[in-house]
């Protein structure tokens, strides 16, 4: 018998061969994907490699960045940096060698290290110098581009600088929202006030308090139910009101509090905690005048006209003198004092005001005291200069423009994964 020219391979052997071929076909792309120099993502046909992603992950970890998906976080940052470099290059941006070195040195200086020492620390963490250079180059090019494109469009006003340097720009520790009722202590109202006080003390809701304020309060806030629409620093409110406001339950009524020529009640509407500013570091800029006539209808009518006519503290003295021509020029005080040096009555009144607002609730020696708050400023060591505040505001505005610009670039880009 002649041997057969061909014998079918055993089925098991064929299956093994097919499986091996199939695994090889699957493994090849996987091997390529795991290769350090294979592309992890393309940004407008520019490849970001797995090696770059790994390096960026290490750099972000070194710089203290955290996230639930470090790899994706690294890819997102690399995509942004690639877009920033591409756009800067397209528009003619470039860096001189000295500019790049200066930027790297400045970054290292934030950690109180020389550039060489910082690079050495990076290398100990497995991060190449080129990774650091790329990171700094992209940032420097992008800042230059954003400054050139948007810097001339941004205007920082004196009012913005004043706000940045004000107490409102650096919030106090504990603040409260209140409503208020002021009752007169004039002799002719004594019997009526004596009947009203117990009724206010029995109030248990904001609605009841607001109704009472509309009916009996002599403060200008009566028309809005006694609402004071600004957060007030509890530390600046004299005791016993301040300490009670710090711990009282929301909705509690505090009072009566003896004020010059008035009895005051306060309803606590809300409370919040935030950053600290010591009272000794707060300077109050305000105007003060004692008006003849006490709390008479005639004097209150003058005050109403003053409120309507005054737009800023610069207008205060001229308008007051127009309404009260017999007042001496020096009767109107221009004051700038630490908050801790104000009298208890003035502090209580001024803390309820926003800059530009007035208060005329207290009476001293038969005269109605009119106060106008001009500004609250933070003073002392560590407070930035106006030039520093202007630069910080400019940088913040540029960061906003840069964020929108980068979002547009990313939306228009061709970003694909292999």
Give your account of this protein's structure.
The chain has about 425 residues and is of the alpha+beta class. It folds into two domains: about 15-150 and about 405-415, Porin chaperone SurA, peptide-binding domain (Triger factor/SurA peptide-binding fold, Orthogonal Bundle), CATH 1.10.4030; about 165-380, Roll (Chitinase A, domain 3). It has helices at about 10-35, 50-60, 70-90, 95-110, 115-125, 130-150, 160-165, 190-200, 205-215, 240-245, 295-310, 315-325, 345-350, 385-410; strands spanning about 40-45, 45-50, 175-185, 225-235, 255-260, 260-275, 280-290, 335-340, 360-365, 365-380, 415. The chain is elongated, with a radius of gyration of 35 Å. The chain starts with 10 loop residues before the first helix and ends with a strand.
Could you outline the blueprint of secondary structure elements for this entry?
Blueprint: H1 11-34, E1 39-43, E2 46-49, H2 50-62, H3 70-90, H4 97-109, H5 115-124, H6 129-150, H7 158-164, E3 174-184, H8 190-201, H9 206-216, E4 227-233, H10 241-247, E5 253-259, E6 262-273, E7 282-291, H11 297-309, H12 313-323, E8 333-338, H13 344-351, E9 358-364, E10 367-378, H14 386-412, E11 415-416
Antiparallel strand pairs: 1-2, 1-11, 3-4, 3-6, 5-6, 7-8, 7-10, 9-10
Helix pairs in contact: 2-3, 3-6, 4-5, 4-6, 7-14, 11-12
């Amino acid at each position: 018998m002649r041997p057969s020219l061909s014998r079918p391979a055993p089925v098991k052997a064929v299956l093994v061969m097919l499986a091996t071929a199939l695994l090889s076909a699957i493994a090849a792309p996987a091997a390529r994907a795991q290769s350090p120099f294979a592309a992890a993502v393309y940004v407008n046909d520019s490849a970001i490699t797995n090696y770059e992603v790994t390096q960026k992950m290490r750099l972000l970890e070194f710089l203290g960045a955290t996230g639930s998906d470090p790899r994706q976080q690294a890819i997102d940052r690399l995509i942004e940096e690639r877009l920033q470099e591409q756009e800067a290059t397209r528009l003619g941006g470039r860096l001189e060698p000295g500019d790049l070195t200066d930027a790297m040195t400045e970054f290292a200086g934030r950690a109180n290290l020389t550039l060489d020492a910082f690079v050495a620390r990076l290398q100990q963490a497995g991060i190449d110098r080129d990774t650091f250079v790329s990171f700094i180059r992209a940032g420097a090019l992008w800042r230059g581009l954003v400054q050139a494109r948007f810097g001339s469009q941004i205007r920082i006003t004196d009012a913005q600088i004043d706000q940045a340097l004000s107490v409102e720009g650096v919030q106090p520790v504990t603040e409260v929202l209140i409503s208020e009722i002021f009752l007169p202590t004039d002799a002719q109202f004594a019997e009526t006030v004596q009947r009203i006080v117990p009724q206010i003390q029995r109030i248990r809701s904001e609605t009841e308090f607001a109704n009472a304020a509309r009916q009996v309060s002599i403060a200008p806030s009566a028309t809005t139910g006694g609402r004071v629409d600004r957060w007030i620093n509890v530390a600046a409110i004299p005791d016993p009101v301040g300490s009670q406001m710090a711990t009282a339950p929301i909705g509690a009524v505090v009072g009566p509090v003896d004020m010059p020529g008035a009895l005051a009640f306060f309803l606590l509407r809300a409370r919040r905690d935030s950053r600290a500013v010591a009272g000794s570091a707060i300077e109050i800029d305000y105007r003060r005048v004692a008006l003849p006539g006490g709390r008479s209808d005639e004097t209150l009518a003058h005050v109403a006209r003053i409120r309507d006519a005054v737009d800023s503290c610069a207008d205060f003295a001229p308008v007051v003198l127009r309404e009260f021509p017999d007042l001496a020029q020096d009767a109107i005080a221009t004051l700038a004092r630490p908050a801790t040096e104000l009298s208890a009555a003035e502090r209580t009144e001024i803390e309820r005001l926003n800059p530009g607002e007035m208060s005329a609730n207290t009476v001293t020696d038969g005269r109605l005291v009119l106060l106008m708050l001009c500004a609250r400023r933070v003073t002392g060591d560590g407070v930035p200069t106006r030039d520093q505040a202007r630069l910080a505001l400019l940088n913040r505005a540029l960061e906003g423009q840069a964020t929108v610009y980068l979002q547009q670039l990313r939306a228009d880009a061709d970003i694909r994964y292999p």
